Amino acid sequence: MAEGSSIPPSLNLRRSAQSGSKVMTAAWQVVYTESTTSSLLAYLFGGAHVNLTPMQAGDTINVRIRKILVSGGAWVNHDQVPYTNVQPTNHPAFSIGPLFNIYGVEISMQQTAGVLRTIETEFYDAKRLGLA
């Protein structure tokens, strides 16, 4: 007797193609974004690692996390953190934890003081298999 089974859609966690070197600017620049207009395409922002080793005395880099919370909605600030001066030798990088979302996640950065730096970033996201 044959039995039928249904396998629910799986998420495929991977390093985002948006990872890499980001040259800072004085204006906000989007360094990672993912959004959809369909509530059927839920995904997971799996997190990020940002290396601030290049920062020097007098530098300020702001990091902003925004989300869209409803279908057709606008971006809403989820968090915003300034980083200033040389970062501690034993902790020059920071991580952003996972964010579950349906409509949109955006990570932006800007440098408001000091010589514009190049910052290394690594982002992870998970999408339904077949939608990558």
Keywords:
single chain, 132 residues, mainly beta, Jelly Rolls, four-stranded antiparallel β-sheet, 10 strands
Descriptive report:
The structure is a single chain. The protein is an all-beta fold and 132 residues long. It has a single domain, classed as Jelly Rolls, CATH 2.60.120. 0% of the residues lie in helices and 55% in strands. It contains no helices and 10 strands. The strands form 2 sheets. Strands 1, 2, 4, 7, 8 and 10 form a 6-stranded antiparallel sheet that branches. The radius of gyration is 18 Å and the shape is globular. The model has no long low-confidence stretch (mean pLDDT 87).
Draw up the topology in text:
Elements: E1 11-15, E2 20-23, E3 29-35, E4 43-51, E5 60-68, E6 75-84, E7 93-96, E8 99-101, E9 104-113, E10 118-128
Antiparallel strand pairs: 1-10, 2-10, 3-9, 4-7, 4-8, 4-10, 5-6, 5-9
Could you write a compact summary of the structure shown?
It contains no helices and 10 strands. It has 132 residues and is mainly beta. It has a single domain (22-126), classed as Jelly Rolls (Sandwich), CATH 2.60.120.
Order of helical and strand elements: EEEEEEEEEE
Q: Over all CA atoms, what is the radius of gyration?
A: 18 Å
**What spatial form do the alpha-carbon principal axes imply?**
globular
**How many strand units?**
10
Terminus-to-terminus distance: 36 Å
CATH class, please? Mainly Beta
The proportion of residues forming helix, as a percent range, comes to under 10%
Mean pLDDT: 87
For the largest beta-sheet, the strand count, sense and barrel status come to: 6 strands, antiparallel
